[in-house]
Amino acid sequence: MKIAIVHDYLNQHGGAEKLLETFKFLYPQARMHALYHNKKTYQTPSNWDLKTTFLQNLPKLLNHKFYFPLFPFATKTFNFDTYDFVLTSSHAYVKNIKKPKNTLHICYCHTPMRYAWDLKEQYLQQENFFLKPFISIFLKILAYWDKKNTKQVDYFIANSGNVKQRINQYYGREAEVIYPFVDCKKYQILEKKDNFYLIVSRLISAKKIDLAIKAFNKNGKKLLIIGTGTGEKQLKKLAKSNITFLGFLEEKEVISYYQHAKALIFPGIEDFGMTPIEAQACGTPVIAYSEGGALETIIEGKTGCFFNQQTTEALDKAIQTFETTHFKPKDCRKNALKFDKKIFEKKIKQFITKKYEEHKNAQ
Fold first, then answer.
1. Which pTM value belongs to this model?
2. What is the pLDDT of residue 235?
3. Could you say which of 112, 115, 255, 325 is the most buried, measured as most Cβ atoms within 10 Å of its Cβ?
């Protein structure tokens, strides 16, 4: 079986890229593809023979969004005529590749294209006033193109029930849910906790870190924040002395903070969200906003608690509730193990093998 694995673009090393590396591990013979690759921000493993598009040869910009109108065209330039099976790892464009008639295409969908669908208005609010009308028209065209071309996908895999629902809502397609993974063997329980709360996140507006800072400014409790991002300067100005920014830390250091924290604060909305599972794998409960993937990864009253409004008052009340509730580290760890890497690998292999056999038999 000749296999192609396709990712939208390689410009960071996040959760989607960890899954991509696992896909390559499961199918080492596969040829890797991406719309473009930023070699400074993501270094590909040595055994990858990566094929990119004409976007790779354009002048490098600090913000690749200025090339967004070209991405649909670049997506269609891949040629998979000689492949038996294409696996796309997509949160944006590459699920809409041009698929040969006898080739099986399975898409692992991290999310439908958010700026064309559910976050369109939020995205437009951040844009230049004079450009906004043109960008709005482009996003409408992009949404039409995105939905029309999902017929190129034979089967969808969603990274959560939350994303499954949106695939059905926007594309009218069904999806199998296979959760992303945490490599739980890297994380160990620490029963004794220190007197601080923790955030591990990119420091951008969508993560709602400002909401947590305002809540901790009010309650005076100790909060440590790991991560960097475009909003870092403003967030530091907002924070009082009980809040410490630790910046970028290596994985081992992050794990140590997970282990020692009283709880992880998770104030934003994620399609799935890896940090709550990483914290639970260390025996640390999570205080999270009750939307998105958090509802699928946290057990209220047992591995964490929720707040139902994104307000400082609601978060502060959840913290008070947390401090009067007894959480067992072993319960958190047990819940995290449901999302272990071995389970992910097994489910992906089983799903792909089954669908490929059905595909061959139908020809």
1. 0.88
2. 97
3. 112
